[in-house]
Amino acid sequence: MLISNDLLTDEAKDLKMATREFCKREFADTLKWDETQNMPYELWKKMGDIGLTGMMLDSEYGGMGADALLAVVIMEEMAVFSPAVAMSLGAHSILAGNVINRAGNKEQKARFLPDIASGKKIAAICLSEPERGSDAAHPKTKAIKNGDKYLLRGQKIFITNAPVADIFVVYADTIENGKSLGVTAFVVEKTPEITVDKMHKMGMRASPTGIVFFDEVPLSEENILRGIGEGTHIMMEGLDVERIGLSGENLGIMKGALEVASKYAKERIQFEKPIISYQMIQEKLTYILSELELNRTYLYKLAKLWNENKGDKKLRTATAISKMRSAEAAVKCAEEAIQILGGYGYTSDYLPQMYWRDAKLFTIGAGTSEMMKLIAARRIIQGFNEL
Length: 387
Ligand SMILES: Cc1cc2nc3c(=O)[nH]c(=O)nc-3n(C[C@H](O)[C@H](O)[C@H](O)COP(=O)(O)OP(=O)(O)OC[C@H]3O[C@@H](n4cnc5c(N)ncnc54)[C@H](O)[C@@H]3O)c2cc1C
What we know:
The chain is an alpha+beta fold. The chain folds into three domains: 120 residues, Butyryl-Coa Dehydrogenase, subunit A, domain 1 (Orthogonal Bundle); 105 residues, Butyryl-CoA Dehydrogenase, subunit A, domain 2 (Beta Barrel); 151 residues, Butyryl-CoA Dehydrogenase, subunit A, domain 3. It is built from 13 helices and nine strands. Strand 4 and strand 5 form a beta hairpin. Helix 5 runs antiparallel to helix 6, helix 5 crosses helix 8 and helix 10 runs antiparallel to helix 12. It is globular, with a radius of gyration of 21 Å. 49% of the residues are buried. Flavin-adenine dinucleotide binds next to strand 1, strand 3 and helix 13.
């Protein structure tokens, strides 16, 4: 028996199964999407039809109202089939959509959320800049007060979904009379003043990524989320649930690696025996299983704690540990799966090489492994009562 499964509620088990069945039907071309660096646009509509695009959004705006555990199981199951599509979905719903859900006023929610929830419009979140990556809380992008408007000027980079996005959540330094009023979060629809260059990547290739140029985009009060200078707070309060949700993908990558590699090892004959009969192959499979089970048990428990103690900063260290360790384990598990498949694992016909390239992103995106270690180190420096 796997302990991790024992932590799931009936609702989470059902949703996990439903996501898996959906992906089995709709994700047959995942390797082709990886090769062509494109996912089909119709997939957004199909994910919308079963509620996935609105996963963490309030039901009154058409969302599923999923909690952190439900988000984790969706991301886990989808990542078995396509970590890239899961990442695009996560950026759309768990990151951008969730910011509007949390920080938007009634009018903003009514205007933006129904189309995000249904998948009719695609959302992107814009924090990172060419010169502000790990230090994203100090953007160089500016929103400069001009009469009763703000003009948004600057550049964001590595933005998931940007090449196909209709709605952007953007963090910018807000300037009035030459003085900074702090970082503000804006929600803005695509206008001619917003242009995007598509980026080419080693992994997560089905998920479109872009550099976004904001060239004097006119903004008004209607675009401001919560208030001027509230951006950093909005950014920080969402960090934990975003990292918990996205880390679900690392579980999916480990699970996919185990499924593919164990099936292959049972079928592949060398020296007149299936290679699974060799202990060095068993050791690799056991390693993947143990990383999956340990990381899954920790992440499911963490997601449940987050549901019970929403916004409790005490979970930040646990979230950082989970994100860092699950990402590093996913890379290593995918690599072991490639090894089990031998030369076939090195070809683009099999999933493990895609998992490996995709998993690497999670040691970088949404806070690098080094930044996660810094968060955990801060806790060690403060000292523990509970060790
Ligand atoms: C495919 C992909 C999708 C992404 N999607 C989005 C998105 O949708 N929206 C968005 O806003 N961003 C997105 N990002 C950006 C991502 O969040 C950043 O790449 C990440 O935060 C790191 O920033 P950076 O790349 O500028 O690296 P840097 O911050 O320049 O870091 C470079 C290296 O230095 C290390 N480093 C930096 N500071 C320290 C320190 N104080 N101590 C020790 N080491 C340090 C880092 O860990 C890293 O190893 C995406 C990135 C990728 C690759």
